[in-house]
Amino acid sequence: MKPYPVDLRERLLQAEDAGLVRAEIARCFGISPRSLSRWRRLHREQGSPAPRPRPGRAPLLPPERWSALRAQVAAHPDATLAEHCARWAAEQGARVSEATMSRLLARVGAATQKQTLIARERDEAERAAFRAGAAALAPADLVFLDETDTPTTLTPLRARAPRGGRPWAGCRGGGASRWRSSPP
Question: Which of 18, 76, 100, 163 would you label with 91, given CA atoms 20 to 30 Å apart?
Answer without folding.
Answer: 163
